[in-house]
Amino acid sequence: MTDDLPGAAGDLAKQHPDVWSAYSALGSAIADTGGLSAREKRLVKLALAIGAGSEGAVHSHARRALEENLPVDDLHQTAFLAIGPLGFPRAVASWTWITDVTDQS
Protein backbone atom coordinates (compact mmCIF):
# COMPACT_ATOMS: atom_id res chain seq x y z
CA MET A 1 0.00 0.00 0.00
CA THR A 2 2.74 2.49 0.86
CA ASP A 3 4.24 2.05 -2.62
CA ASP A 4 0.99 3.39 -4.09
CA LEU A 5 0.96 6.61 -2.08
CA PRO A 6 2.02 9.75 -3.91
CA GLY A 7 4.06 12.62 -2.53
CA ALA A 8 4.58 13.40 1.11
CA ALA A 9 2.13 10.76 2.35
CA GLY A 10 4.13 8.06 0.58
CA ASP A 11 7.38 9.45 1.93
CA LEU A 12 6.01 9.49 5.48
CA ALA A 13 4.66 5.94 5.13
CA LYS A 14 8.05 4.65 3.96
CA GLN A 15 10.12 6.54 6.53
CA HIS A 16 7.75 6.04 9.48
CA PRO A 17 5.77 2.85 8.89
CA ASP A 18 4.64 2.73 12.53
CA VAL A 19 2.99 6.14 12.22
CA TRP A 20 1.38 5.18 8.92
CA SER A 21 0.13 1.90 10.37
CA ALA A 22 -1.51 3.68 13.31
CA TYR A 23 -3.04 6.27 11.00
CA SER A 24 -4.41 3.55 8.71
CA ALA A 25 -5.85 1.61 11.64
CA LEU A 26 -7.65 4.74 12.85
CA GLY A 27 -9.09 5.29 9.37
CA SER A 28 -10.37 1.71 9.25
CA ALA A 29 -11.94 1.99 12.71
CA ILE A 30 -13.67 5.25 11.80
CA ALA A 31 -14.99 3.83 8.53
CA ASP A 32 -16.65 0.99 10.40
CA THR A 33 -18.51 3.09 13.01
CA GLY A 34 -21.74 3.66 11.11
CA GLY A 35 -24.02 2.51 8.37
CA LEU A 36 -22.84 4.54 5.40
CA SER A 37 -22.21 2.60 2.22
CA ALA A 38 -18.77 2.62 0.61
CA ARG A 39 -20.13 5.00 -2.06
CA GLU A 40 -21.52 7.38 0.56
CA LYS A 41 -18.26 7.35 2.52
CA ARG A 42 -16.25 8.16 -0.60
CA LEU A 43 -18.51 11.08 -1.54
CA VAL A 44 -18.45 12.42 2.03
CA LYS A 45 -14.66 12.25 2.05
CA LEU A 46 -14.57 14.04 -1.30
CA ALA A 47 -16.91 16.72 0.05
CA LEU A 48 -14.76 17.17 3.16
CA ALA A 49 -11.67 17.54 1.00
CA ILE A 50 -13.51 20.17 -1.04
CA GLY A 51 -14.54 21.98 2.13
CA ALA A 52 -10.98 21.93 3.41
CA GLY A 53 -9.76 23.36 0.11
CA SER A 54 -7.21 20.56 -0.24
CA GLU A 55 -6.36 20.01 -3.89
CA GLY A 56 -4.30 16.91 -3.10
CA ALA A 57 -7.08 15.32 -1.07
CA VAL A 58 -9.66 16.12 -3.77
CA HIS A 59 -7.39 14.48 -6.34
CA SER A 60 -6.92 11.47 -4.08
CA HIS A 61 -10.61 10.95 -3.35
CA ALA A 62 -11.57 11.54 -6.99
CA ARG A 63 -9.02 8.90 -8.07
CA ARG A 64 -10.32 6.45 -5.49
CA ALA A 65 -13.90 7.16 -6.52
CA LEU A 66 -13.09 6.30 -10.12
CA GLU A 67 -11.34 3.11 -8.98
CA GLU A 68 -14.53 2.27 -7.07
CA ASN A 69 -16.57 2.87 -10.25
CA LEU A 70 -18.46 5.92 -9.02
CA PRO A 71 -19.91 7.91 -11.92
CA VAL A 72 -18.02 11.04 -12.92
CA ASP A 73 -21.30 12.96 -12.79
CA ASP A 74 -21.58 12.15 -9.06
CA LEU A 75 -18.13 13.60 -8.44
CA HIS A 76 -19.00 16.75 -10.37
CA GLN A 77 -22.30 17.06 -8.48
CA THR A 78 -20.39 16.85 -5.20
CA ALA A 79 -18.32 19.84 -6.30
CA PHE A 80 -21.40 21.76 -7.43
CA LEU A 81 -23.11 21.13 -4.09
CA ALA A 82 -20.36 23.23 -2.53
CA ILE A 83 -21.71 26.38 -4.19
CA GLY A 84 -24.23 27.10 -1.44
CA PRO A 85 -22.16 26.55 1.70
CA LEU A 86 -18.68 27.33 0.34
CA GLY A 87 -19.24 29.73 -2.53
CA PHE A 88 -18.92 29.61 -6.28
CA PRO A 89 -15.12 30.08 -6.43
CA ARG A 90 -14.44 27.11 -4.12
CA ALA A 91 -16.91 24.94 -6.03
CA VAL A 92 -15.32 25.80 -9.37
CA ALA A 93 -11.83 25.22 -8.01
CA SER A 94 -12.82 21.82 -6.66
CA TRP A 95 -14.54 20.94 -9.93
CA THR A 96 -11.30 21.69 -11.80
CA TRP A 97 -9.37 19.50 -9.34
CA ILE A 98 -11.83 16.67 -9.98
CA THR A 99 -11.55 17.13 -13.75
CA ASP A 100 -7.76 16.95 -13.40
CA VAL A 101 -8.38 13.32 -12.47
CA THR A 102 -11.49 12.45 -14.47
CA ASP A 103 -10.09 13.83 -17.74
CA GLN A 104 -7.10 11.47 -17.42
CA SER A 105 -9.22 8.34 -17.22
Detail the topology: elements first, then pairings.
Blueprint: H1 7-15, H2 17-31, H3 38-52, H4 55-67, H5 72-80, H6 83-86, H7 88-102
Helix pairs in contact: 1-2, 3-4, 3-5, 4-7, 5-7
Descriptive notes:
InterPro entries: AhpD-like (IPR029032), CMD-like (IPR003779). This is Alkylhydroperoxidase. It comes from Aliiroseovarius zhejiangensis. The chain is mostly helical and 105 residues long. It folds into two domains: 33 residues, no CATH class; 70 residues. The protein has seven helices and no strands. The chain is globular and about 40 Å long. It starts with 6 loop residues before the first helix and ends with a helix. The mean pLDDT is 93.
Structural descriptors:
single chain; mainly alpha
**Count of distinct strands:** 0
Q: In angstroms, what separates the terminal alpha carbons?
A: 21 Å
What proportion of the residues is helical, as a percent range? over 70%
In round numbers, the mean pLDDT is 93
What is the total number of structural domains?
Answer: 2
Structural class call reads mainly alpha
Looking at how many chains there are and whether they match, the oligomeric state comes to: single chain
Strand content: under 5%
Pfam families: CMD (PF02627)
Domain Carboxymuconolactone decarboxylase-like: 17-99
InterPro entries: AhpD-like, CMD-like
Protein name: Alkylhydroperoxidase
Summarize this, please?
This protein is 76% helix and 0% strand.
